[in-house]
Amino acid sequence: MKNLIFLFILMISIGYSYSQNIESSTRKFIDEAQFTRINKDWTTTAEFKSGIGEYVKFYPIEVINLKTGETRVALQLDMYVKKPDVYKTAWVAYEEISEFISFIEDNVIPNLDLKFKDKSSEFIFKANEMTLSYFVYEKKRRLTIKLNSYDDSEFTNYTFWTETQVDKIPELLVVLKTL
Question: How far is CA 64 from the centre of its chain?
Fold first, then answer.
C-alpha cells in the first residue's frame, strides 16, 4: 500500500513539473525590465500563410532594458489563428537559434523533396515557446507551428499549419542566420 501511495505521489509531481509554463529567456528579460524597447527588423521576415487567412511571421528583434542599457537579440514570431480567434506573440531566444538553424539545415532542407509510399516521417524542433514540425506523408508535406504553453491562457494549443507554404522554409533559415 505504501508503494502504491508513493507511486501516486510521484506521478502527480511528475505531471505537475511537465505542466509548468516554460518561458524563453527573452520573455523573462522583458518581464523583469521596468522600461523596455523592442526594435523589430521588418526587412528580414519569413511569413507563412494558410488558406483560411491565418499566418505566422518570423523576424529578428533587439530588446533593450532602458534602465540598464542591457540588450538581447531574439527571434519573434507573431501568430494569428482563427480557432480561437487570437493574435499571439512568442520568442525564440538567442541561445536556441543555433540549434534551430542546425535542425532546419540538417533535417528539413535535405528532406523538402522527400516522398514515401505507405509511410510517413515527421521532423520536430521544440524551443521553449514554440514547436515547429515538418511532416511528410506519401507525397504530401505539412509545416506546423505550435505555441507551447508559456502563459496562463485558457487555450494551450495555438496551432498554425500549412501544406502550400512548405517551400518557404528556406526563407526562415535566412531570417535565423541574421541573428
Answer: 22
Strands 46-49 and 36-40: unpaired
Say how far apart CA 77 and CA 68 lie, in whole Å: 25
User: Residues for the chain: how many in total?
Assistant: 179
The reported pTM is: 0.82
The angle that helices 25-32 and 94-103 make with each other, rounded to 10 degrees, is 160
For CA atoms 18, 133, 130, 54, give the dihedral sign.
Answer: negative
Looking at residue 3, what DSSP letter applies? H
Give the DSSP H/E element, type plus range, for residue 11: helix 2-18
What the block records as the C-alpha cell of 151 is 502563459
Those residues with Cβ within 8 angstroms of residue 18's Cβ, 6 or more apart along the chain or in another chain: none
C-alpha grid cell, residue 126: 521544440
Condensed to tens digits (0 to 9), the pLDDT of residues 142-171 reads 999 999 876 666 666 789 999 999 999 999
Say which amino acid occupies 14: I
Q: What average pLDDT score do residues 79-99 get?
A: 93
> What integer best gives the mean pLDDT of the chain?
87
